[in-house]
Amino acid sequence: MRDEHFGVPIDQVQSIEKVTSFTKVPQAPDYVKGIVELRGEVTTVVDLRHLLEIGETEDSSETRILIVQVEGLKMGLLVDEAKEVIDVNDDSVEDPPQMVGGVEKEYIMGVSKQDDRLLILVHLHKVLDVEQIEEMKEAVQA
Question: Taking every annotated instance into account, which residue ranges of this chain make up the domain CheW-like (predicted)?
Fold first, then answer.
């Protein structure tokens, strides 16, 4: 996302997809961009920047959808780009400061120095609280 580098646990990521057009969901929360059909399944797509309260993801040729599984719900996270899979050694992860990259500490699992950049590790279970997940489950089932 922009100049910040964010990461999510690979065990929660099922795939990385190019952005296709979304179908808007009436009366959905602001963070829901819409739904898409991927491999025969309808998937809700949410804007990770919006959830982290650092703006909106802008559409570009680099924009991607991370298909993730959180609390038993499969969903898409709209991100600026998805560059690589990095093996982060637990020893390299430090506690986050109060705010990093404009993101509140509660959403961050930790930070890790990777070569010449700081990788911010996102805690998806905190970013999407149980209430939001239930709202999305209901919207998908409706």
Answer: 1-133
- Cβ(79)–Cβ(48) below 8 Å: yes
User: In this structure, is residue 3 part of a structural domain?
Assistant: no
CA distance 51 to 31: 6
Q: What is the CATH number of the domain that holds 102?
A: 2.40.50.180
What is the rounded distance in angstroms from the CA atom of residue 66 to the CA atom of residue 84? Answer: 12
101 within a domain of the structure (yes/no): yes
Number of domains in the chain: 1
Full domain range(s) for residue 65: 8-141
Q: Which residue has the tokens 């279970």?
A: 125
54-111 pLDDT, tens digit per residue, is 889 888 999 999 999 887 888 899 999 998 888 888 888 988 887 777 788 888 889 9
DSSP state of 128: S
Please, what is the average pLDDT of the chain? 84
